[in-house]
TrEMBL record:
Record-annotated DNA polymerase III beta sliding clamp N-terminal domain positions: 1-119
Example GO BP: DNA strand elongation involved in DNA replication
Biological role stated in the UniProt entry: Confers DNA tethering and processivity to DNA polymerases and other proteins. Acts as a clamp, forming a ring around DNA (a reaction catalyzed by the clamp-loading complex) which diffuses in an ATP-independent manner freely and bidirectionally along dsDNA. Initially characterized for its ability to contact the catalytic subunit of DNA polymerase III (Pol III), a complex, multichain enzyme responsible for most of the replicative synthesis in bacteria; Pol III exhibits 3'-5' exonuclease proofreading activity.
InterPro entries named in the record: DNA_clamp_sf, DNA_polIII_beta, DNA_polIII_beta_C, DNA_polIII_beta_cen, DNA_polIII_beta_N
Domain DNA polymerase III beta sliding clamp C-terminal, residue spans: 251-360
Any matching Pfam family: DNA_pol3_beta_3
tRNA processing keyword on record: no
Primary site of residence: cytoplasm
Subcellular localization: Cytoplasm
GO cellular component: cytoplasm; DNA polymerase III complex
Keywords carried by this UniProt record: Cytoplasm, DNA replication, DNA-binding, DNA-directed DNA polymerase, Nucleotidyltransferase, Transferase
The protein's name: Beta sliding clamp
Assembly: Forms a ring-shaped head-to-tail homodimer around DNA.
């Protein structure tokens, strides 16, 4: 087996495939990356850990058919460090030799016959623009939980009804919901799936740079959790097993009536929160006091360091003092994709809704909503 290919093309493909490899594989071969030159001359790189699979198909300048398995992480580090010249990859017995310019690396191969077969892509369900897909997933995945002891909170719930996809994620302290349009394979297509949040975020980010549409493929959706979902675009494909579909009834958590609404520059708000939060201990909040024309941001108290900043704000409703975890607030502001941030509140102890001011009028429902639980202020 051998092939020649441009360094940048190979390095990008190897890096993308290596992201699916387990950090601590249960068996040594799962740390490997499978490279195959097909009879048609295509180069396929793949990785699989029984949960997530990734495969990318390339067109090398030349090649001889064959299959080899080498350390994926090591190959990623090598290709990233190679000079900007064509790369020659040749299998010589039990070793693989990578040559690029004056650099030459020899890698031990692994038993390819012990490597598991990649799962078959599920049936295609529909298509969506890669940029829309990447943006929507990024907005929602930020709220997915990181605690593996609560697996249902580590996922992103995908609900499909016809041409509308709703994504939702929560870690109990905030909730992100995004609606988007897509092109279903069937007009009346309906499905529900719980997708591992990190896997979905990685896939969306990688496929979002392709500039092509993303094809979504699903099987056994809304069932026992034994199903699978796949995403493919521009020669790249990835699959993952679905989580159990159990998820909080999140729609009932979204308030529809508010006593106060504030709109202000997103960038100014972000910078002010970052500055004030410098004196906030890990679990202490940033306090916000809204009144006509301004918001006062504060952090720290008593004998500790303190910070105060005042920003102009377009404010309607009852004056309100409310406090948030500054990291959760910053992540929400980073996700709204708008020059104007709109914060709608009811009381200092009830959930607030953060949206982008440009995405809906005062009566409309925005396509992205970020619910954030306030931290109770001590009296």
């Amino acid at each position: 087996m051998m092939f020649r290919i441009e360094r940048d093309v190979l390095a990008e493909a190897v890096a993308w495939t290596a992201r699916s490899l387990p950090a601590r594989p249960s068996v040594p071969v799962l740390a490997g990356m499978r490279l195959e030159v097909t009879e048609k001359g295509q180069l396929k790189l793949s990785g699989f850990d029984y949960e997530v699979s990734a495969e990318v198909t390339l067109e090398p300048q030349s090649g001889e058919a064959g299959v080899v398995l080498v350390s994926g992480k090591l190959l990623a580090e090598i290709t990233r460090a190679l000079p900007a010249q064509p790369v020659d990859f040749v299998v010589e017995g039990a070793k693989a030799v990578v040559t690029c310019g004056s650099a030459r690396f020899t890698l031990l191969t692994m038993p390819v016959e012990d490597y598991p077969s990649l799962p078959t892509m599920p049936p295609a369900a529909g298509r969506v623009g890669s940029d829309v897909f990447a943006s929507a997933v990024g907005q929602v995945a930020v709220a997915a939980g990181k605690d593996d002891t609560l697996p249902m909170l580590t996922g992103v719930r995908m609900e499909i009804e016809g041409d509308t996809v709703t994504l939702a994620a929560t870690d109990r302290y905030r909730l992100a919901v995004r609606e988007l349009k897509w092109q279903p394979g069937q007009p009346d297509f309906s499905a529900v799936a719980m997708i591992p949040g990190k896997t979905l975020a990685d896939a969306a980010k990688a496929l979002g740079s392709t500039g092509a549409e993303v094809e979504v493929a699903m099987s056994s959706v809304g069932g026992t959790g034994e199903g699978m979902i796949g995403f493919s675009s521009a020669g790249r494909r990835t699959t993952t097993r679905l989580l159990d579909p159990e998820f909080p009834k999140y729609r009932s958590l979204l308030p529809t009536e508010f006593s106060a609404r504030a709109e202000l520059s997103t960038s100014s708000f972000v910078e002010a929160v970052k500055r004030v939060a410098l004196v906030a201990e890990r679990n202490t909040p940033v306090r916000l006091a809204f009144r006509d024309g301004e918001v006062v941001l504060e952090a720290g108290s008593g004998d500790e360091a303190q910070a105060v900043e005042v920003l102009p704000v377009d404010f309607e409703g009852d004056d309100i003092n409310i406090a948030f975890n500054h990291q959760f607030l910053l992540e929400g502001l980073g996700a709204i994709d708008s020059d104007v941030a709109r914060l709608q509140m009811t009381t200092s102890t009830k959930p607030a809704i953060l949206t982008g001011g440009k995405h809906a009028d005062k009566e409309g429902v925005p396509d992205y909503r970020y619910l954030i639980m306030p931290i109770r202020l001590s009296s």
